Amino acid sequence: MNATARPHNPVREKLSAALFVMLLIVIGVASISQLRWTSPSGQMDSSFGGGYDLTAAAVMGLVVLLVGAAAWIVCPCRPRLNLLLAAEILFVAGLIVSTWFAADHRVALNYAAGFVVCLVLMHATFRLTDRPWKVRLALIALVALGTIFALKTWSRELYETDQTWTQYLETREQLWARQGKALDDPAVKLYEARLLSRDNGGFFFHGNLGGAYLAFLLMVSLAAVANRLRDRAGPYQKTWLAVQVLLSLLIASALVITYSKGAMMALGIALMASMILLLFGRRLRRRVNLAALVALLIVLAGFAAVIGHGLARNTLPTLSMAFRWQYWTAGWHMFLDHPLTGVGPGNFGYHYMRYKLPEAEEEVLSPHNFIVQGFTEFGILGGLGIVLLPLAIFYSLARSAAADSPPLSVLESQPPRAGPLMLIILAGIYIFAVAFNQTGLDNPLILLALHWPYILGFALSFTLSSLRFDELGDIDDRFGGRGKLVDPPVLVFLAGALVLFVAGNLVNFSFFEPSNQFLFFFIAGLALAAAPPQTSLTTPKCDLAKSAGLAVLALLFLIYVVVPAARIETAVADAEDSPPARDPAFDQPYQRLVELTEQYPFDPHPPAKAAERLLRLAQPGVAPELLIAQAVKHFQQARSRAPQVYRFWRAEAQAWLLLAETRPTRADHAYTQAETLLDCALELAPRSRSLWVTAGLTSYQHAVALEPAQPDRAARLALQAKERLTTALELNDALPENSLRRFPPSQMRQIHSALASLDTFLSQTTQPAP
Known about the structure:
mainly alpha, Serine Threonine Protein Phosphatase 5, Tetratricopeptide repeat, elongated
């Protein structure tokens, strides 16, 4: 079917091409960076600190919003995505409501804004993809990104993991001493177990994330192979086809060494779905609604089988699935307590310790299932939205792919040449990577030397995927069969990539991580544009209004996400790395955190970090009790801003315990305050073993301090201490015997010693009246 032409507008074409390349650069940066929608100080709470994960993600999000605002002007009058509208409205409504009622508003705002950015990314990609060459450019660039991700994964497997282990053994004692942890601490055991398991996420921090990314790009690389098949008759095309297959095999080999079972399972489902579409596509095209209904029933039957098995046996097969069943069970009870509002985007981890099963080993931030996480965090509206959104994408794509119609626009200009585009994309990725590098190195030349294998790998893969016949010329701009931008097999594998992502996130958490989010919504927009829906076109006035709205949204995103992320992450990093001054008035990191505390009154993290900085300043000889007292006030600010986050209550209690040590004459008041705070923390996190131990030891210390003057009260505190320490041991015994998370021997000795002392104490003290 012949396509219809529209007037040639070179300015708009060049702007459209530039905007599309900018989106590819964003995807490229996300492929080699660790991006997270966390709190600005969230990653600093880990044992080894963190980089500017949120700042980089926020800047990428701002770029997407600006590109989106421009896309509605540069590419007006595009088809409407009507089927997605209801799901998007539900989803965004759920995000707004759940963010408003979230425990940690900063984290909730970041996650919610991230999802809005992804929706804009999908629509911007759909709007900008109006030529076949753009789809093929995206395939070429994504295969090149998959190639360098595979190279990084193999580098970690063959060299970096062993080197990291060797370096770790050399500094093991000093490293954990700086963290204040004994070598038999569960955190040490878990870290070492992860290193020994050779967990390999490539550029990402977790093997499941790296595996999900590689599996996704493997499906995209198969789309590139399918695209190569149309040139089989030309010179050298069998060679280029073989090279394309080898690139796919390289990505597949890297997927294997991530050891991600969930990614492999999702890949199998995606390949099966793709084969069904390739073999029976013509028949299914005539019965789209029936095929969609059958597919939905198969999915529901699979859900019913898994849930039925879990309810019948209270677990699922394999250890990893048994863990996930524990997360999902806790998530179900969490949802029942917050059905309308949810607990807030990104806030699952704050509430998990209230609902965690006693036998559950892990303390997680995500239930590892996008449906469970959607309903628990976003409430009923957001949960329905996050379920309906991928369903609407698949159904819209199926309806559009089945229709025979000419493309809505064909431009008469020549497509760009591959060589200059490769250099532009590489330069853009490198500039952003230098600006937000996470290596700790500041010299761009050193960074260039460090990453030259990946730069070379990207350039080689891009070139080999771009070659047509015997030259590196213009990117192929021929339309596919049945009037689509690409041939049906290419579209099938793009759809298979989307199926893989959704299936993988039934047991994974990559739907909530920026790098994987960006890739999914970019491919969704690309696939929808490759087979555009046969709907009415948008009007210029409507497009202009949407562009203005996105410009306002970009400004708000800059003010409330990007700027706070950059400022707070910088201040927190300085506070972590800078040596403390003797006087807080001259301590610049502390003063910056105090300033940020006042400027962002809903954010609990700056005052908490300011308090931690003061505790570092509280050295002997500089009136430590005054600094600790001020730290207590900062912790009070933090918990008042996030009263459902138990760790702020615990942190303030620990500050009061320090005051009890420095002010012996007022120890009774300090211990009482600490116990009150710990009681509140235990209400929020009754499954926290460490919290029960802290509360028990606090009551024991208070009893010892009171015993000469108030024996009855001391006896009551001793009984309370014994009860709390016993509860901690019961929770510990509920864990599997071989669990690395059980109390280490040193802590068990401490607890049993305290219990023995309490028994002696109670035997020598008058028993309190009932």
